[in-house]
Amino acid sequence: MTAADWWSIEILDAEHAETSAAAWRDAYAQTLAESLVTNGAASWEWFEHSWGVVLEVAFAEERDWLLWKALPGTRAALDAVPDALTGLLIHRGHGGSSGTYVPRAPRVSPTADRVAVPEPG
């Protein structure tokens, strides 16, 4: 058996939308789950974030993922996200958040005056 390919569908909340990403998930989760089961998904899981929701899906073959994504029910669900223009991200791999943004501390640039020069002996 080969390792499963993971795919992520990220649905973002939108200020101008009438529904939230969580409400979208509540409306379409069962339909999507049924189609995942009947079309050979190895695994799937929902994640809720402060900015929206993520559906992570695993299929054994990329072909199976493409077939599932092309199903009319899947297309209808994805077309119904709260912000169809900028609120839907689909990509390979695990999705979601890598944690809280923490900027890196600035580095001291290497310059000649920062290096200790050995004393002549």
- CATH architecture of the domain at 14-96, please? 2-Layer Sandwich
Rg over CA atoms, rounded to whole Å, is 22 Å
Assess the beta-strand content as a share of residues. Answer: 15-25%
Alpha carbon gap, first and last residue: 68 Å
- How many helical elements? 3
Give the overall average pLDDT.
85
Low-confidence stretches: none
Q: What's the total count of β strands? A: 4
Structural class, by secondary structure, is alpha+beta
Region (Disordered): 94-121
Protein name: Antibiotic biosynthesis monooxygenase
Please describe what this structure looks like.
The protein is an alpha+beta fold and 121 residues long. It has a domain at 14-96: Alpha-Beta Plaits, CATH 3.30.70. Helices cover 29% and strands 25% of the residues. It has 3 helices and 4 strands, in the order βαββααβ. A 4-stranded antiparallel β-sheet has the order 2-3-1-4. The longest helix has 18 residues, at 21-38. It is elongated, with a radius of gyration of 22 Å. The termini are far apart. The mean pLDDT is 85.
Secondary-structure map:
Elements: E1 5-12, H1 21-38, E2 41-49, E3 52-59, H2 62-70, H3 72-79, E4 88-92
Antiparallel strand pairs: 1-3, 1-4, 2-3
Structure summarized in a few sentences:
The chain is an alpha+beta fold and 121 residues long. The protein has helices spanning 21-38, 62-70, 72-79; strands at 5-12, 41-49, 52-59, 88-92. It is elongated, with a radius of gyration of 22 Å.
